[in-house]
Amino acid sequence: RPRSHTVTTTSSSFTANLSASSSTLAYDREFLRTVPGLLMVTEIVLGLLVWTLIAGTEYFLYPAFGWVMFVAVFYWVLTVFFLIIYMTMTYTRIPQVPWTMVGLCFNGSAFVLYLIAAIVDASSVTKDLDNHNYNSWAASSFFAFVVTSCYAGNMYFSFISWRSRTLQ
Questions:
Q1: What global pTM score does this model have?
Q2: Which regions span the lipid bilayer (predicted)?
């Protein structure tokens, strides 16, 4: 008498999820055409300018410029990170994170710390310190205030977004 063989196959949910998520990598080009997207790109470009203008000098001799460097590099890296998150629409794949609140806290802290750094930068620029670095430090101070205003604008848009989500 012939024996009956039953074969059962199963698939891993990990491989199913991996293939589904990797094939649907989104790219939101329209984000760069919005005001928050343009502000974010401006923050990245001018923030890079702030810290490169200072990094090209002997800033390490003056602790105030070390603080400005820390703030500029820290928020530059985080802003690039958030731009990637928004451009790839990663926030839609992680709905457990309150992205509107995260954006509001990020932009609010960036505004406050960049404002402090810009004031410290501007008050530390004197011709008495070092004539060789004066122009770089003065330019970094100007661009630090411009980046601060960009973070203020993004904080406003983050607040509007957060406010509209909490009222729903």
A1: 0.80
A2: 31-54, 60-85, 97-117, 137-157
